[in-house]
Automatic annotation (TrEMBL), chain A:
GO terms for biological process: transmembrane transport. It comes from Actinokineospora spheciospongiae. InterPro entries: BPD_transp_1_N (IPR045621), MetI-like (IPR000515), MetI-like_sf (IPR035906). This is Dipeptide transport system permease protein DppB. Keywords: Cell membrane, Membrane, Transmembrane, Transmembrane helix, Transport. It is a multi-pass membrane protein. Pfam families: BPD_transp_1 (PF00528), BPD_transp_1_N (PF19300).
Automatic annotation (TrEMBL), chain B:
One of its GO terms (biological process) is transmembrane transport. The keyword ATP-binding does not apply. This is Dipeptide transport system permease protein DppC. GO terms for cellular component: plasma membrane. It is a multi-pass membrane protein. The keyword Iron-sulfur does not apply. It holds the Pfam family BPD_transp_1. Keywords: Cell membrane, Membrane, Transmembrane, Transmembrane helix, Transport. InterPro entries: BP-dependent_transpt_permease, MetI-like, MetI-like_sf. Belongs to the binding-protein-dependent transport system permease family.
Length: 313, 260
């Protein structure tokens, strides 16, 4: 039997294949076909034929799939049905805004989750633990758009503290527009990540190894940093993959709420316009991040717990 | 303390959602759009000139109904499939779980967006998709919970007695697996509630003239400054519903765990 990394890579390859076929098959889901998006209902049959030829819809399905796949490898995602601009360019432009949003969110989220998780995990069942856990659970329960609107109502409209929209603003020139979107994303994702860290820390801190090290007189911070946290890291890495997924979906809602010109707003716009090539591009990017993120998380978690291999065989 | 708070947070929006449509009255436009609270309209009017009180009273039923329907469907499909996966056939288990591994990878809101883009939107699509994306996770939980009880001596005894598949797996194994599955269901309520509301907020479900809380919040969010009540009241009800469901599930199931 092949080793775990090989099997895991195989799963990702099959997942990637399913994504490609499903994304291409999306055009088949359309009532009518893509030419009906470009033309009105009253278009003459000759016009329909011209548009169908331009979009390559008059060729057989297998030929179109081949063209589409070979285009993907050269970075050609087709052209938008609405603006006729290359899809790859549009997505590349928007990628920067979403990457910035996700990056800043992770920079805030990771230390905060570590702090909350370690603080509550080391004192499991104490008042600190109960308060921190309750707050995280409450924040997690509220949908992003409700939390965002409540923040806008409280801090942006009446308080005037932070801008409520990023429309037409250069994100790097005015970073304060990111405050509210990042707050919403962090609030929503904090719970799951902190909970994983808390469980791991509580378990390893109460374990025999940590107890023995404390008896040997090792200072508490060394016990926690060098032994408890590394021991708790494998499930946390896997949770991190879920977090990245959550950030992607959250970004769709948060970006359209705060008008951040990122992948999320682009995706929503493309859906509203039924701009199939654009939607296919966005789906590929989102699904690619999810598949690769899960693969990376599983492989790293596997490296962190090599004993699992022996148990599973 | 948190249990009482949870029940209050949950019951108030539930009462509004289920009882509201009976007392709401007409939601046809009655006055100027975004009028402040005044005579005849205790909460003012929304951007379409509808009475906000009537809209809020009528708009919770879809939120609660869709969530309940999606959860019912997800467990209706997920529990039997999970039991089959946990059964004797190793091949069936492998095929089912590998297949679900593939589906588990895709974020649910994205699936809804793709469906909406290809002209598949509306209440039915929303409920079925919200249910379908939960099925892999439900199957996983049911399978994991049913594996151990399915290997007990009692099951062998039931086989030797010649009991039916239904009697053994639903009557005995499923009942033993109920605890973990109920815990999972508690957390899944808030998850599905959030998904259904977010989808309606993004315009992927109900039409934009609907009185659904999430749709109303979306339509009126630009008028937050002029007419805050129309956004804040449904928002507060949604928060109560989500947080209350979470707290109640936690305290009820937590109590069950301690005693049982």
């Amino acid at each position: 039997m092949p080793g775990y990394p090989a099997r895991r890579l195989g799963l990702s390859a099959v997942q990637a294949l399913v994504v490609l076929v499903a994304t291409f098959g999306m055009t088949a889901l359309l009532p009518g076909d893509a030419s009906s998006v470009v033309l009105t209902e009253h278009a003459a049959p000759e016009d329909v034929a011209v548009v169908r030829a331009r979009l390559g819809l008059d060729q057989p399905l297998t030929v179109r799939f081949g063209h589409w796949i070979s285009g993907l490898f050269t970075g050609d995602l087709g052209e938008s049905l609405v603006t006729a601009l290359p899809v790859a360019e549009e997505i590349g432009r928007r990628l920067a805004a979403t990457a910035l949003l996700a990056g800043v969110t992770l920079l805030v989220l990771l230390p905060l989750a570590l702090l909350v998780g370690v603080a509550s995990g080391l004192r499991e069942g104490s008042r600190v633990d109960r308060v921190l856990t309750s707050v995280a659970v409450l924040l997690h329960a509220v949908p992003e758009f409700v939390l965002g609107l409540l923040l806008v109502a409280g801090l942006a409209v009446h308080g005037g503290l932070f801008p409520a929209t990023a429309a037409g603003v250069d994100l790097l020139a005015r970073p304060e527009v990111l405050v509210l979107p990042v707050t919403v994303l962090v609030a929503r994702q904090l719970c799951d990540l902190a909970r994983q860290i808390r469980i791991g820390v509580a378990e390893h801190s109460a374990g025999e190894v940590a107890g023995h090290l404390r008896l040997l007189g090792l200072p508490e911070h060394a016990v926690v940093l060098r032994h408890v946290l590394p021991g708790a890291s494998a499930p946390v890495v896997q949770q991190l993959a879920r977090t990245v997924e959550g950030l992607l979906t959250g970004a769709v809602v948060v970006e359209s709420l705060f008008a951040v010109p990122g992948l999320g707003t682009g995706f929503v716009e493309a859906v509203q316009n039924r701009d199939i090539p654009q939607i296919q591009g966005y789906v590929l990017v989102f699904a690619g991040v999810v598949v690769l993120g899960n693969l990376a998380a599983d492989l790293v978690a596997h490296r962190l717990t090599p004993r699992r291999e022996l148990v599973l065989r | 303390m948190s249990r009482a708070l949870g029940w209050v947070l949950l019951v108030v929006p539930l009462l509004v959602a289920l009882g509201g449509p009976l007392v709401a009255g007409s939601v046809d436009p009655v006055g100027a759009p975004s009028a402040p609270p005044g005579a005849g309209h205790p909460l003012g009017t929304d951007v379409l000139g509808r009475d906000v009180l009537a809209v809020v009273l009528s708009g919770g039923l879809s939120v609660v109904g869709f969530t309940a329907a999606a959860l019912g469907l997800a467990y209706g499909v997920g529990v039997p499939v999970g039991l089959v996966a946990a059964g004797q056939r190793r091949v069936v288990d492998e095929v089912l779980m590998r297949g679900l591994d593939l589906v588990l990878a895709f974020p649910s809101l994205l699936v809804l967006m793709v469906l909406a883009a290809t002209g598949h939107r509306g209440a039915v699509v929303l409920v079925f998709t919200a249910a379908a994306v939960q099925v892999p996770a439900v199957v996983r939980v049911v399978r994991a919970a049913a594996l151990a009880p399915g290997c007990r001596v009692a099951v062998e005894a039931l086989y030797l007695q010649g009991q039916s598949w239904w009697r053994i797996h639903v009557g005995y194994v499923a009942r033993s697996a109920l605890g973990p599955v109920a815990t999972d269901a508690g957390t899944r309520v808030a998850l599905v509630l959030g998904l259904v509301a977010s989808a309606n907020f993004l315009g992927l479900g109900l039409p934009s003239g609907s009185v659904d809380w999430a749709v109303v919040i979306d339509r009126n969010s630009d008028a937050l400054d002029a007419q805050p009540a129309v956004v804040l009241v449904p928002s507060a009800l949604l928060v109560g519903l989500c947080v209350g469901a979470n707290l109640v599930a936690d305290s009820v199931l937590g109590r069950g765990r301690r005693t049982g």
